[in-house]
Amino acid sequence: MEDVVRIHANPSGEDGKKVGLEMNEHHYELWKWGIGHISIEPDSWILDVGCGGGRAVSILADLFEAGKVYGVDHSSEMVELATELNKNAVDSEHVTIIHSSVSELPLSDDMFDIVTAFETCYFWPDILEDLKEVRRVLKDGGILLIVNEMYEHSNFEERNTPFTEVVGMNIFSPQDYRVMLESAGFSSVEVDEVPENNWITVIAKK
């Protein structure tokens, strides 16, 4: 289990590329469910943090053709996969993929209308400080959308015990998200859950 979490936290090498391709397929329905919680103007600027293999970036780029979509990931292999998957959109400058950590985004203040984080904040180095960094690049009134397929809920332990014991993976409850986001300066925190799927969506406003 430690090895599984490690390769998902920082996909690298051939195994990492395989994980990126698997995530592109496995997480599709989760991404679509999460995105359905927000209304986005067609000319919005959007950042996907921890973009992995780039499928979420592709979904966002298709939905919002008049806007601009950025993806950022700390794995060079994932940046390569995401760039390849979105080649036409990258070539037309509708999509930009960047190699960087969430902790130091090489992006301007107040740049984005929406920041998305799909299946990634489990692994952020310092969740509170990283949320503050995400908030920095959001415009006033901008939205952070967090979507995960694992979170603490009433029957979590019996279904997910192996993951609760893994070092380097942080699994949060709805209340954890509320406290962390408010501490990072966000407001209007809303949570939607599907416990039978382990799905959670968290929406917060700058």
UniProtKB/TrEMBL annotation:
Q: Name one GO molecular function term.
A: sterol 24-C-methyltransferase activity
Would the keyword Transferase be found if you checked this record's keyword annotation? Answer: yes
- Entry keywords, A to Z: Transferase
Gene3D superfamilies hit by this protein: Vaccinia Virus protein VP39
Is Transferase set as a keyword in this record?
Answer: yes
The highest taxon in the source lineage is: Archaea
Per UniProt, residues of the Methyltransferase type domain are 47-146
Gene Ontology biological process terms, A to Z: sterol biosynthetic process
InterPro entries attached here? Answer: Erg6_SMT_methyltransf (IPR050447), Methyltransf_11 (IPR013216), SAM-dependent_MTases_sf (IPR029063)
Q: Which residues form a coiled coil?
A: none
Identify this protein by name. Answer: SAM-dependent methlyltransferase
Q: Which organism is it from?
A: Methanococcoides methylutens
